[in-house]
Amino acid sequence: MVRRCRQWLLGTLCVFTLAACSEPGGEGEAAKAVEWKLVTSWPKGFPGMGVAPERFADTVNRLSNGRLVIRVYGAGELVPSFDVFNAVSKGTVQMGHSAAFYWQEKIPAAPFFSSVPFGLSAQEMNAWLHYGGGLALWQSLYEPYGVVPMAGGNTGAQMGGWFNKEIQTMDDLKGLKMRLPGYGADVFKRAGGIPVSLSGGELFTALETGAIDAAEWVGPYNDLAFGLHNAAKYYYYPGWQEPSTTLEFLVNQQALQSLPDDLQQLVITAARAVNQDLLDEYTVKNMQALDVLVREHDVALRRFPAPVLVELQRLTRELLVEISENDPVLARIYASYRQFQADTQLYNRVSSGEIVNGD
Ligand code: CA
After folding, report:
1. Cβ of 335: how many Cβ atoms within 10 Å?
2. Which regions of 76-118 does DSSP assign to beta strands (E)?
3. Residue 157 C-alpha to ligand 1 middle, in angstroms?
4. With 70 as the cut, is the pLDDT of residue 122 above it?
5. Where does residue 277 rank: exposed (0-12), middle (13-18), buried (19+ CB within 10 A)?
6. How does pLDDT run across 139-154, given as a tens digit for each residue?
7. How many CB atoms lie within 10 A of CB 164?
8. Looking at residue 357, what is its pLDDT?
9. Parallel, antiparallel, or unpaired for β 234-237 and 300-303?
10. Is the pLDDT reported for residue 14 higher than 80?
11. Comparing C-alpha atoms, which of 82, 83, 77, 84 is closest to residue 43?
12. How far apart are alpha carbons 229 and 172 in whole angstroms?
């Protein structure tokens, strides 16, 4: 009896001691907790892309047992949407969640790592980045800024956007003021349109007040959340400008290197998990939201006419060739991207393409 009591007492003491050691703010391991700030380009808690960094932070906090605590801030809370890269680069914050095409002015090749018009699908982007050499090119592109990029989710195929007039020929794009980002904006300009750069949070008001004529944001899931169907009549497809869009985690290089190896690996692994998880979420939510938009809100779906798409594709090729000419870094990335797309299209022709088109 005495022996059993002693065993019980020892067991209780052990449990008590372990609990004390792992208590946040207590002595020992928890006292070494590292606190990071993560800023995003999205409204706080916005469906999909806004929640993904919260999931990432929660995963890291829990799997590190409180040794790495990451706090997430929405657009404008610490820095504006388009200052995320600079904030991470300067070390004002340790992490960011955004999309690479927002840094095009500073880094002309950056859009290859978010989205290219008529480019790779989400599955293909993930393959190129992680097994086709894309990630290494991305890392060396951001290296001079002291920023380490990681894929941070994918929206899947986007929609072509919201218009208040029908698009029947290329002439209908001329003079049109439209919000769209990245190389898509450059192509739109070549088509005679006027591209406008706006963050997500500014988009609804600009469209509703007529400050812009048309806008693309993401796809049904996110467009419904912003209520864009209340600001424009026609919802166009396909999203030629963004056949898939990779989001990114940005990590300050010094902050990452200062972590012990296991926490560095945890950040990398959690980012990879969120990258896939967000695509899974968009795949389900986009199809559900499109149904709601069409059935409950009577949204008029329209397809861009084939000749318009053919011309936009021609302008895309023209743009990419031209911007490669005087930029060897961009040319190297474009060569890798283009080769990967050609290879994957060959395989698609005898695999998924045939299954989708099969009788
Ligand atoms: Ca978009």
Report:
1. 12
2. 95-98
3. 9
4. yes
5. middle
6. 999 999 999 999 999 9
7. 13
8. 59
9. parallel
10. no
11. 77
12. 21
Q: 89 with 145: CB under 8 angstroms? A: yes
* Confidence band of 32 (pLDDT split at 50, 70, 90): confident
Residues near 4 by beta carbon (within 8 Å), at least 6 away in sequence: none
* Cα 212 to Cα 82, 168, 192, 215, distances in angstroms: 19, 19, 15, 7
Nearest-Å Rg of the Cα atoms of the chain is 23
pLDDT averaged over the chain?
92
Calculate how far, in angstroms, residue 161's C-alpha sits from the geometric centre of ligand 1: 8
| C-alpha 160 to ligand 1 mean position (Å) | 8
Interval between CA 228 and ligand 1 midpoint (Å): 13
Domains defined along the chain, listed by start: 2-18+32-157+246-285 (3.40.190.170), 161-242+299-346 (3.40.190.10)
Give the whole-angstrom CA distance, residue 215 versus residue 192. 16
**What gap in Å lies between CA 306 and CA 19, rounded to an integer?**
65
CA 103–ligand 1 middle distance (angstroms): 15
The CA angle 104-224-169, to the nearest 5 degrees, is: 65
Tracing tokens 């005898």 back to the chain, one arrives at 350
Please state, in angstroms and rounded to a whole number, the distance separating the CA atoms of residues 203 and 197.
9
Least confident of 11-15, 142-146, 269-273: 11-15
Q: Report H helices in 101-260.
A: 122-131, 134-142, 182-190, 200-208, 220-226, 253-257
Is-contact 157 239, C-beta < 8 A?
A: yes
> What is the residue type of 271?
A
Pairing of strands 214-215, 161-163: antiparallel
Measured in Å, residue 166 CA sits from the centre of ligand 1 at 19
Structure tokens at 42: 């999205």
